[in-house]
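Changelog-linked ticket: 1-O-alpha-D-glucopyranosyl-D-fructose example.
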Amino acid sequence: MKTNWFKDAIIYQIYPQSFMDSNDDGIGDLKGIVSRLDYLKDLGINCIWLSPIYKSPMADNGYDISDYLDINPIYGKMDDLKLLIEEMHKRNLRLIMDLVVNHTSDEHEWFKAAKTSKDNPYHDYYIWRDKPNNWTGFFGDKAWTYNPETNEYYLHLFNKAQPDLNWENEKVREEVKKICKYYLDLGVDGFRCDVINLISKDQNFKNGHNKLILVGKKYFINGPRLHEYLQELNKDVLSNYDCMTVGETVFTNLEDIKLLTDESRNELSMVFNFDHTSVDNYLGVKWLMRRFKLKRLKKVLDHYQYGLKDSGWYSIFYENHDQRRSVGRFNLKESKAFYTTKMLATAFYFLKGTPYIYQGEEIGMTNLDVESIDEFIDVETVDVIKVMKKLPLTMSYIEKSIKNGSRDNARTPMQWDDSTYAGFSNHEPWLRVNHNKDVINVKNQLKDQSSTLNYFKKLIKIYKEYQILNREGVYKDLLPKSNSLFCYERRCGNELLLVLTNFKDHKVKHKLLNKYQGFKQKILLNNYDNFDNSYLEPYQAILIYLSK
Ligand code: TEU
Ligand code: CA
């Protein structure tokens, strides 16, 4: 029944609000996605992760759900989802949906009932205290909000419009099973489980000590019953389907990943770990910007690549709807995106794990080019600006940090062509299209053999051709100490993939190929026309297949 299809998949993340608008109201929708399936098929991916499309007041763009079993009318109807699934399966594409069950919307019927009185049967679906403790949430502010009707406080680890569910209550767990079952029966192939390692909280609700950020973190991350809850969900529902789960796990380490994804434990198929996205910040908080050093990135990647050699599985990604765009990140020059976009993809996607490409990454979409930070509308950005303004920070630091970290950067409409609204819509979109759509767009790049898009296509094709090496190949970092080059091999016996990438904007010499005399060599990818045995061009990336 269960196969490991997810280990060979290449997954493409769609942020529905910004992908494709079919009815010209300025908002992406399900029919829009259907109309672009041939594009995705042609790109070569074989699975889509769809960010939330459920009914939602959109306080957090759908990560605040008011009805799990209904579709947000801005995206369409349940029949449109059925059509999407059908059209995807026809094309041999799988679909995983976002499962956001750490919290609901405050407009969910459960919460509306729960807050009316302590005796209401839904009251215990949420987490209440007479007095708040000192915890702060992920958006920087206090994690408790007062509810006058019951004279209590409810817990919300995100915005106050996102009350946390009480997983201690068996009824809540049954509801979650019902939701999963509903979508699996519809033909969905799995779930991306939002902040899944927050669902179990230490029931003592002790005050936290860290005074700076995420106060109380150690009491709400990887709580005491996390593994039990996941095993229960598997036993009762997931194990009956050939589906996969990817847990979004925040602040997890290698040991956590092993426990969560060890096949024999039946918890999650894989997780997203964020350590590598934190090498350019302090304390895992992106607002606290830190100078990027390649060595630090490699140390994190090595740690997990070596650590997950024999058991455990994770995701390989560097963009998503919460991250800034990668163009211009990691100290890479924005003006050299023609090379760096291809270099980054080569450097990351041949690591061991399942690749995730975020919409627009394949054409090198960039951060939102705002003049003023008042243009940002994301709930996290708005909440964080308020908090930052209370702290002893200069306005210029706040501006720089917000421009760098706002999630709106990744959420601008997909750039399909150079028309007024970039082929995304014929109506002004909910979030402004980037000015560079005239240059950076799918239509242009499909025509241009040397484009980022065509490089991604080629990379994906090759990834699939070398499936065994990608799944099983033993990882070795060949230059762990270099601050310029990231070079590694994935080896199975006398066969290997060799990845050579240069993170610097100047030529860098190396002697790595001397090691492989006697091997036959085939160059599979190169973001330059030329190749030299002894150096890499600025931002050059090469993938070589070697065999004896
Ligand atoms: O993100 C969880 C999470 O940790 C983020 O809030 C993260 O701290 C921040 O976005 C980094 O910029 C998930 C979803 O991916 C996010 O979109 C939701 O807002 C959040 O959960 C709440 O559901
Ligand atoms: Ca629409």
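Closing comment: Example verified and attached. Residues 21-23, 25, 27, 29 surround calcium ion (ligand 2) (CB under 6 Å). The first strand starts at residue 11 and ends at 14.
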